[in-house]
Amino acid sequence: MCTVLITGATGNVGSRVAADLVAAGVRPRLFVRDATRLMHRWQGGSVEVALGDFDDEESVEAAMRGIDRIFLTSADGPDKVAHECAVIAAAKRAGVGRIVKLSAMHARTGSPLPAFDWHGRIEAVLADSGMPHVLLRPAFFLDNLLMVAPGVAATGHLAAPTGGARAAMVDVRDVAASAASAVLANQVLRDSYDLTGPESVTFAQVADAIATATKQTIVFDDLTPEEAAPRFAGAGLPSWLGTQLSGAFGVMRDGGFDAVSDGVRELTGRRARAVSSWARVHAAAFVSEPAPAPPQPSVRLG
Ligand SMILES: NC(=O)c1ccc[n+]([C@@H]2O[C@H](COP(=O)([O-])OP(=O)(O)OC[C@H]3O[C@@H](n4cnc5c(N)ncnc54)[C@H](OP(=O)(O)O)[C@@H]3O)[C@@H](O)[C@H]2O)c1
Description:
Blueprint: E1 4-6, H1 12-23, E2 29-32, H2 36-39, E3 48-51, H3 57-63, E4 69-72, H4 80-94, E5 98-102, H5 114-129, E6 133-138, H6 149-155, E7 157-160, H7 172-184, E8 192-195, H8 203-214, E9 219-222, H9 225-233, H10 239-253, H11 263-268, H12 275-281
Helix pairs in contact: 1-7, 4-5, 8-12, 9-10
Bound molecules: NADP nicotinamide-adenine-dinucleotide phosphate.
């Protein structure tokens, strides 16, 4: 049984990779900044904790001891390249046998989309390192829609600048399952896998799937890029994230997420989950809390 280090283990993807490995009978080592964030989830010694921070070289080095394989992910942001390159350098020194890196479809050094540029630069460092590695390149996450779920719940409208384009959006559960399989696989894998959903769908179809799952009416408003721009700018997001999101919808409008790949099936042995499955699991996020019942007048008997 190999020893696995999971970075980003409190994040959307990393936490699910950890869960999938535990379910497969592996006791992964989780690299985390704050162990209390794991307490509610992992009990009974099912995981090992390596406390550390990507900015603390010694902690990264210590986390590598005895590790055969790594799942590499980090938060998006200006420090991403430095953070992941610190892990790659320490892994090389420790002689780690495989790095499975969560990248992104359209990753490319010099991309005007910040996250695609960061991933492209990290991919290049990984290639130069000569270490065995597997790149996972997911399309647009269905789970991005959870960011706007409260607004959808409140208004019954889902809005995005898609130009009616189709996209083979992927469920984060499938990204994690693919990563867990890539980490554990005994056979030699390809250098890179595109990860998508099983079908290419419009946002109007996604809105319909959420409407079916929530038994509510949800209208999709396809915005023009000009209508959407002030929404991205006014959402209180870091400027790189506004650029990334509006750029990602531009890629979508150009058909850049339309192609369906077989990466999830190749890695996990089963079909990627459909939008309807994702909508059922997340239905509650798109439903408004019922208003609290008004206080009842107290009745005195006798
Ligand atoms: N959204 C999409 O459509 C899409 C599509 C393709 C690819 N991707 C890629 O998917 C990845 C996102 O994964 P995700 O959603 O799992 O990310 P996430 O939820 O933001 O998780 C980030 C993780 O990194 C950890 N972290 C941050 N700074 C750290 C530090 N200094 N030291 C140690 N750990 C640190 C966080 O720990 P704390 O809990 O301590 O903060 C957290 O566990 C990104 O690389 C993104 O580019 C996204």
